[in-house]
């Protein structure tokens, strides 16, 4: 298991060093990534064509992913410190030129379609590997996402697992005020998916439900992960400002001390 | 061109199990030979072209060579950002097949016309863009390009029967093909409109004007050497295409003239207007846009007169 606390600590320290925003959405997915990379996905080597694939369809949370790469020992501290500098492969959104990134993302609604292709390829090759796709709730506004959803259930892509980071915020406000998603679980269920609702910060539960998914037969699965935007830093929680703003020195100190508690 | 393309694709798929065919619910009476032969490698993704481009990206990353098939604007324009961020960004061998070149779907209206698919595709880095002139070339172009590492866009016309005799089905990446030689002016053309250009050259011949006709079927990478060589022989060049004039073949030739500092007169013939009001079949639409053989011949004569 990876430490969510360490992921959050790295998100805070790196976003301070780089003086950038996108902090809230990265904190929101820290536990989900800790579970996927710590307990679920089978990745022995990035050269192995039969490894599990991961697609951060909500590419703007990439810093959380880079923290995971570091904690897995796949990148050095020196490389992590290149995040958001010139001549880096660790940009705001994941770049597939990096050996640990399967697909570049950043344009919402696209990553899931790549994931459908990856899952279909695994089925065609009769391989047991899976595709895990992390999407945001605002991303469910995208029509192309629902095209992918329909195709996946029609073709019984049991090896496709989508996690919706349901933190209730999108770029200009609350999802419920912009394009209401509810009843979201019902929507996915009616599209033929196996739907599991879970606390997206409860790593034990998350691990348990994802481990139990039958990825060999049946419909694809969506985990509706109830999360808190900015989770772990009280003054960032549910505050849209932290989609955009970098931290002051005082805010950084406060954030780090809360996470380290 | 579609049928000969699919026939060639079946041959290739027979030899290479990486070939997969996706369609956005189109290809009735065209795709059946593939579907019947390789049902496990065929997916109708439904009317969802964006998802089709994403799926193709995922399949190609895993080692497949997916062909995604739809009518040109749906294949190239609806999907454009997915193709840009998918196969182009990831340098993956996805093949985008856009059927219906120019006004092939004349009476179906603007939604079905391919008037900028080639233009927008050719500006992307690392994509091969192919616009065969006839069905024989569609087949040979596929055979010459299916195994490339990069993405490929194919613009396929609906005409199955007309053949450019002098072309003899030849296709080579990076080459331009001269199908008629002449000294008074150069006509560079692309796709099925070549037959109008040939007819125009016949009319010009009757007026004592001899024209060189060259076909660009590999639009990207552009056949720069061949274009420059041909341009250097002439004082007047006409480009003839059924695309909007900005961005397509005419733009490619004007870029070449400018970049090589050549000194000749260029007349870009293509679609120049916003089409509203009554529409008709392919011939009707081409004539409406000044792309009939008569229009081409007249334009050549006017330019020669200065």
Describe this structure in words.
The complex is a heterodimer of chains A (261) and B (306). Chain A has 261 residues and is an alpha/beta fold. Chain A has a single domain, classed as Rossmann fold (3-Layer(aba) Sandwich). Chain A is built from 12 helices and 7 strands. Chain A has helices spanning 4-18, 23-28, 30-40, 62-71, 77-80, 111-124, 143-154, 175-178, 184-190, 203-211, 241-244, 249-260; strands spanning 53-56, 131-136, 160-166, 169-170, 173-174, 194-199, 221-226. In chain A, the strands form 2 sheets. In chain A, strands 1-2-3-7-6 form a 5-stranded parallel β-sheet, with helices on both faces. In chain A, strand 6, helix 10 (203-211) and strand 7 form a beta-alpha-beta unit. In chain A, helix 1 (4-18) crosses helix 4 (62-71), helix 1 (4-18) runs antiparallel to helix 12 (249-260) and helix 6 packs parallel to helix 7 (143-154). Chain A is globular and about 50 Å long. The two termini of chain A are 19 Å apart. Chain B is α/β, with parallel strands linked by helices. Chain B has 2 domains: 2-156, Thiamin diphosphate (ThDP)-binding fold, Pyr/PP domains (Rossmann fold); 177-305, Rossmann fold (3-Layer(aba) Sandwich), CATH 3.40.50.920. Chain B has helices at 2-15, 32-37, 49-61, 72-78, 80-90, 117-122, 135-145, 194-206, 224-232, 249-259, 282-288, 293-305; strands at residues 19-23, 42-44, 65-71, 95-99, 128-130, 152-156, 177-180, 185-189, 211-215, 218-220, 236-244, 265-271. In chain B, strands 2-1-3-4-6-5-10 form a 7-stranded mixed β-sheet, sandwiched between helices. Chain B has a 5-stranded mixed β-sheet with strand order 7-9-8-11-12, sandwiched between helices. In chain B, helix 1 packs parallel to helix 7. The A-B interface holds A 49, 53, 96, 102-104, 106-107, 109-110, 112-122, 124-125, 131, 143-144, 147-148, 150-151, 154-155 and B 20, 40-41, 43, 45-46, 48, 50-51, 53-64, 66, 81-82, 85-86, 89-90.
